[in-house]
Amino acid sequence: MKSSYYSLAGLFAILRIANAAPQTAGVIKRQASQLLSSYDFVIAGAGTSGLTVADRLTEAFPNKTVLVIEYGDIGYAPGVFDPPQIIWGGPGTTGTGWNLFSTPSPALNNNTAQVVAGRAVGGSSAINGMVFDRGSRFDYDGWAQLQAKSSSADRKGTIDWSWDALYPFFKKSVTFTPPPEAVVQELNYTWEADAFDNTTPIHASFPEFQWGDHFVPRKAWREMGIRIADKCYSGDKDGLCWIATSEHPVTARRSYSGLGHYADVVANRPNYHLLVKHQVTRVLYPSGKSKSGPPVVEVRPVNGTDVFTVKVNNEVVLSAGVFNTPAILQRSGIGPAHFLKEANIPLVHDLPGVGSNLHDHSGPRMTWKYTKPLPFSPLPEDMLNATFAAWATAAFDEIPAKGPYTLAMSNSIIYVPLPNITANYSPILDLIREQANSTDASALHLPAAYNGDPALEAGYRAQLRVLADMLAHPRSPSLESAYSTGTRLSALMLHPLSRGTVRLNLSAPLEPPILDYRSASNPADMALHVVHLRYLLRMLQTPTFQELGAVADTPSEEQAETDDKLVDFIKNTAVQSFMHPCCTAAMMPLEIGGVVGTDLKVHGLGGLRVVDASVFPIVPAAHLSATAYAVGEKVSCLSNL
């Protein structure tokens, strides 16, 4: 595509989505009376994957009608650091996201996880931290290994989800625009041009601004022996990476699915309808039709109580997200039979994996102090200066935006394999493999809500074996840590072993479900947290940090004196969710607790598919939006869609 396309169409698209201009008014629907009598496809959820599928379907099949139903509305997607903030405020969630809390996690002193889920056209891509990375090849090869656990004699129809099979869709799903050459020279950005096809209006790039101290950990990490990774987007994600931001090339603001897969494409597609401010409550199968399908979709207005149904000719696609997709299934009588009986919901299809396998990236944080003045600028405290703050706001309003407000969390990120973190990693692997091979179900540390289901237990054992092999590999990352500025770093555990659940809230079944994270319930997770945090603390002993007089703040020297004391610190302070929940409708064989097959069709049901991060069987070593886009692209190319 030519740059003129970006400068005109991209800018107009942002204006359309911000102002709800007439170009899309005929596509947006707000009440049942505006809908067709039936649709070929109905997609529940206008999120990252859902809008990708809707775009590709309406483009490929102009004679097929598609209805997307979204709980939220269409509008401007704020960044994580938009004016008038003077510090990073987290995801921009006002009116665009659910701010959710889990039940207490006993292994972490009954602290709760806080997680934000998208509630807008664009889903979580409209509110996330805008880090746009891909997982390691070992992550997706692990997905493929789990599919091979099927005992079915005929696996000819199995679709490959390995790295090699998914990589073309990673490339297809994003357009990368290099920053200006002067910025490249100043900040030493590098990237892989051949890792992007540059044919889609989902964009990524690097900001033109970095704080003056952004290079300090980069130097220290090199002093620690961390390699420069130059294939971070090509599956070889071991080392120090420059990671791009979800940045539009015209505005230098957020690029997300509500813009790239909706506002940029809908104007000339009469077969595409978007119903906003409505909730899919259930899918309903006519008597005797559950295996053939498709189901009817039951819908209600968010601000009302009267429900109506939408007839579907071909297929229903659930893309309501990691929490709301299993909630829709459970309300529909599709899920664990014992739970549905407790909920007094008539059983349609016993599927124990629905709402199981919940996990997320988690980990402790470290902070430090400098005892010497910092010899560089600008720094975040300059935002407290009225003149600098006024310049920063004015720069953000330029086209393209400039200055500190264009930063979206971090671009410098390390991904470190466990064998490079500690020489004493074998005991952790031995613990995981002992669990995987144990005949004692209690050794698995699984939720009571699994109800001793043998398929779920078998699936978890299969995951443990895959994860142990990944953690043992010297090129498969176990730890992530990202830096932009300041005196704080997080130690993200990329492959957690603990598993939680998502269950319908029986007292308010149309509200977000109950999240039981059960963080650190598997003792292997705490062992990983300890070695990850000790590894990061070594950074303060590098020549670069010593020259600046850096000293540890938290954990203090006393708190890190022994592993037991460090465990106490982690129990009190660990972040249980870095906003990367996944895996609650896992793509695995039915006999090991899977919910969908490799075609993402729900096991045992006709005309029903799931396409969002809930189908990931194991969380990848990455922030999730890029993978969610790639999954949407891959499933859109299946011949049976």
TrEMBL record:
GO biological process, any: secondary metabolite biosynthetic process
Name the record gives this protein: GMC oxidoreductase
GO molecular function, one term: oxidoreductase activity, acting on CH-OH group of donors
Record bears the keyword Signal: yes
Active site: H580, H623
Cofactor field: FAD
Natural source organism: Canariomyces notabilis
Annotated signal peptide: 1-20
